[in-house]
Amino acid sequence: MIEQWQAMAGEGREFEAWDEITRYAEDLPEDEVGALIEDLAGWPGRRPMPYRWWERRSRGEWAPCFLLADHRVLFGDFEMHDMEDPDAYEEFYGTSAMGDEGFFSGFNAIGTSPDLRWTALVSEAEGNSSSGGLEVFDAETGTWEADGVQEDDRYIGWGEDVAVSPDGSLVAAAGRFDRQVIVWRVPGPERLWAAGSWGTGKEAGYSHIGFSGDGRLTVAVSSASPWDEAVERNVVVADAETGDVMFTTATVVAGGAVLDHSGARLALIGPAGDLLIYRLPDGEVVARHRTALPGAGVLALSPKGDTVAVGGDGGMELVGRSTGRVPAEGTCRAITWSLDGPRALFTSEEAATVIDGQRRALWTRPMEDPSLLVAAFTPGGHTLVTIETYPAEITAWFLDHDLRG
């Protein structure tokens, strides 16, 4: 049967072959599924999770056959694909993942909830003709929630960054011009607050937004000066529900800033490339570490707040209670902390790769221009979510295949 499926894939019938494989595997015991995975090593086609499996997985169920799939298409513009049997695609992927039109390009950032229900995107402005905006996709219903947002609430000038709270209830966006930082509650979405410049005197906007691990606080970093990177930037920590400022400081910052789980520690790369750890809410610098990692600026704090994973050019570095350097090819684009330690996304000239703290490659994908990849980890780091604009597709890549219910 393996030869038959491989022949089908070689004839351009990859989807049909994969559909047959998934149905064949549904009743196999775990050891036989493992053998099938080995037999399919080097499978030339995609390995998406069927909707019927996805429904079970979303309910917390687990089956050995789930190990075959390495991703789930959350949304796809399948009108752009050359499909001989549209009904078969719809049955396989589910109507919530199907679309008959794409979305506009120019997305700068993506954020997602742990359960993958909510995907938030922010876009840049298109010249003088349109403002950048927010798009929120509900994978449960297959609808774009931002369609119901009033224009004054939705358009954010030039979207720079977006994040979804760890419990999936809040979406925060940062942008240049206009309101600069704005937070919505989903479903709805209902706008909770818009910060403007928070009275900081900076009108250029914000380029980074994030949540504490418990979702109570947001942290934002103002946009860097295009003429002088040594100019101080504002770092603001605020209540996620109200926007009330808890802490603010002005300092030179490389990249963004991160909070630990409870919001008791704030970490950033400050002047002279030093890693600074602030205690909140009083703002005292309680630790300073020198990092020799070039291009450092992507950070993740461990849940206990005692170790920082720093990403840069050529690897990531652990600083704090745990120390060490993990080499990697390319530039770090995103980093997170999972149950088994840090995970980081790197892009090189030819590929994008996710590695863990033991330098194991959890996911890799050859790309024509990896530097254009827009991607984000789910809170907890179980999944990497990416977006393609042509054909339009939002894809969740499973980094932990063996999540059992």
Largest sheet: 6 strands, antiparallel
Molecular shape = globular
The helix-and-strand class reads mainly beta
Strands across the major sheet, in which order? 19-20-21-22-23-24
The oligomeric status of these chains comes to single chain
What's the alpha carbon Rg, rounded to whole Å?
Answer: 22 Å
In total, the number of strands is 27
InterPro entries: WD40/YVTN_repeat-like_dom_sf
Protein name: WD40 repeat domain-containing protein
Notable characteristics:
single chain; 405 residues; mainly beta; 6-stranded antiparallel beta sheet; 5-stranded mixed beta sheet; 42% strand
Q: Could you walk me through the main structural features you see in this protein, from its secondary elements to its overall organization?
A:
This protein is mainly beta and 405 residues long. It has a domain at 2-95. The model has no long low-confidence stretch (mean pLDDT 87). Strands 19-20-21-22-23-24 form a 6-stranded antiparallel sheet, with no helix packed on it. Strands 2-1-27-26-25 form a 5-stranded mixed sheet, with no helix packed on it. Strands 3-4-5-6 form a 4-stranded antiparallel sheet, with no helix packed on it. It contains 6 helices and 27 strands. InterPro entries: WD40/YVTN_repeat-like_dom_sf. This is WD40 repeat domain-containing protein. It comes from Actinoallomurus vinaceus.
